[in-house]
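U., I forgot to send this yesterday:
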Amino acid sequence: MNLYKDPNDIPSSIKDKLDTIVVLGGGVPETVSDPPVYTKARCKAAAQVYKSVQTRNQSLRILALSAGTAHLPQLISPDGLPVWESTASASYLMNELELPSENIYVETTSYDTISNAFFTRTNFCDINNWKKLLIVTNDFHMKRTMYIFQWIMDAENPNEKQKTNGYELYFLSVPDEGLPEVALKARYDKEEKSARNVKDVLSKKFPTLPDIFGFLNHNHSFYTAKMLVDRANSRQSKVDNPDVMMLRQSYGGISSKVESHAKYNVKTSLQAETYFFFGILFGFLLSMIGRLLLTKGHKMHIK
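Result:
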């Protein structure tokens, strides 16, 4: 099924003919150069493949995916603009893994795996004739990723004369690094349900590229006009249950920030209670000293 677990397992005959290595976005970065640990694992695997054929396949490029995630707020740069997940991946590829910037591309439109695949095809591959793709993600995400990319990259476009798309898809699955066990379990459960929905429902209901376009623009909460307007105007704050909170931890850096904020709030609360206690004690001592001085003064006045 063209699925590999290690970059070294991919035959040279495949690596030599690749047009693009596609690195899926993994969640909110901590900083512009610090994507989530599991996304770094994707970048490292992509870099290993790239470097292994760099001299033989000089046209090979890496496409980093994703604007953000629908599950968490985005990281904001000092100038007030979002830091795309793909920007953080590209920064890590260039600065930490020392890949040439001219061969790295960023996709900044998608917010989930379906839109990852759709905009990979429509914004990059169809235009540039990139047909042979190696798609890199983590083990927990791979099953759904394979279903989605096979569905969307193979979807016919009736508006084009050419009926066969000619895509060759290869997949590289990397270990699940950097996630707590409870968050990873929640993510696997969610991925399994979503994968079945893609395979049994969505791919059958929306078989062509225009169908998928219609799904995104009429059914998807991050691309449908009315849903976006309603979401922006909503004043009701959403309270997540514990299961949802565990799942949100698998979508990037914000979770660790929330945890550190929680620890900070606990520490601050303890400090406040301590200051309050000593404030009362200090006030009591001042009151007692004042009374003693008044009593002594009164006695001296009597004398």
